[in-house]
Amino acid sequence: MTRRSKTVIALLILAALAVFLLWRFLPTGGREEEHETPAVPASAQAGTVTVSREMLKNAGIETAAPKPYVYREQTHAYAAAQGVGDLINLRKNYLDASGGVEKAEAALEATRGEYERMKKLYGEKNVSLKDYQAARAAFRMDTADLALAKGDLRAIETGSNQRFGRALAGGARNETKPFLRLETRRDVLLQVTLPQGYNASAPPSGLRIIAPSGKAVTARFISRAPATNPQIQGMSFFYAASAKTGLLPGMSASAVFPTGPRASGLLVPASAVVWWQGRAWAYVKTAPDTFTRREVSTEYPVSGGWFVSGGFSPEDEVVVKGAQTLLSQEFLAKPAGDGGDG
Q1: In CATH terms, are 75-84+188-261 and 85-172 the same topology?
Q2: How far apart (Å, rounded) are the C-alpha atoms in residues 166 and 320?
Q3: Would you put residue 228 in left (φ > 0), alpha (ψ -120 to 50) or beta?
Q4: Taking the CB of the first residue and of the last residue of the chain, which one, N or C, has fewer CB atoms within 10 A?
Q5: CB count, 10 Å around CB of 307?
């Protein structure tokens, strides 16, 4: 290859490299389109819709101010229906032990009187030593029997308190009305156990229990449980619920247990919420014929709707009937994919 040929080839290579660099780094219409900033997702935008008075009337649109609501963070706890056979046996054993104490006290009262009488007569030399010693022995035996009977009764009380808690065990021993409702199966005893790591310094007086059938009922607080569910290892509490739930001993249910601090806010009712692009929205009346769509936080679902701490005020007129009609009207004249007014 001649020197002239080598020079030509080198020039061609340099020219090709220059063309490539110009194409790579100079802006072109096609590459600008590739790097164009994407539009804000439609689901993140609110919107406004204006409707005629005739449509307001025909659609039956109604508004209401959101109600104040006090929210507490909640968790689902495990509720297990308990049998009360051991409590019934506790009542029987307690009555037997109490009767034993009463009998021992009566026997001791009799022998004490006899012992005091024989002691006086023996001091006066009016009875033999043998008779005096017999009276004294009877008195000491009855004293020991009373101490033993009281020890048995105390053991039953202590053991039942440690097993069932003072409130539940005391109710069985004293045959209180709540215990009688459990004994006659008008109520069912529930042991509610929180997930491990949750703490409840002040258990609520009432819990919402959801039975396997889906029926919900309020359970009444009895006491803290002295022992927990070994499979869950969380804090446990005793509650009583109506037996009409259909729960039987050995069955389980779900309990909605408040575990967080109280927070004040508003309740956006479920009837006000419409769903669009995976988010919840509600319309607020901003003029006689104009409504603005606002996003509703669904982080805190509650009975009847959602708890919100922002985005709405007690003075707002929230559409509680006809919101779906407004959503349809808002996008009726907009091209597909248009996300709203922005």
Answers
A1: no
A2: 49
A3: beta
A4: N
A5: 21
Least trusted range by pLDDT, from 57-71, 162-176, 246-260, 272-286: 246-260
Virtual torsion, Cα 143, 149, 153, 155, nearest 10 deg? 90
Using the predicted structure, report yes or no on whether residue 342 has a pLDDT greater than 50: no
Domain ranges of the chain: 42-61+273-330, 75-84+188-261, 85-172
| Residue 23 vs residues 10, 13, 33, 294: alpha-carbon distances, Å | 20, 16, 16, 47
Q: Which of 205, 224, 207 is nearest to 216 (CA)?
A: 207
The two three-digit tokens of residue 186, written as one number: 């008008």
Q: Is pLDDT larger for residue 239 or for residue 15?
A: 239
Q: CATH number for the 85-172 domain, one of 3.40.800.20, 2.40.10.270, 1.10.150.530, 1.10.287.470?
A: 1.10.287.470
Which residue do the tokens 């491990």 mark? 196
pLDDT digits (tens, 9 = 90+) for 120-137: 888 888 888 998 899 999
Q: What is the CATH number of domain 75-84+188-261?
A: 2.40.30.170
CA distance 297 to 123: 93
Closest by CA position to 274, among listed 253, 305, 302: 305
- In the structure encoding, which two tokens stand for residue 233, read together? 């290892």
What number of H helices and E strands is found in the chain? Answer: 8, 14
Spatial distance between the Cα atoms of 288 and 106, rounded to a whole number of angstroms? 88
**Least confidently predicted of 17-21, 145-149, 180-184, 255-259:** 17-21
Per-residue pLDDT tens digits for 26-56: 444 443 333 333 333 333 467 899 888 888 8
Q: Give CA–CA dist 128/146, Å, rounded.
A: 28
* Whole-angstrom distance, CA of residue 266 vs CA of residue 152: 57
Crossing angle between the packed helical segments 166-174 and 129-164, to the nearest 10 degrees: 130
Residue that is written with structure tokens 């967080």 in the block: 260
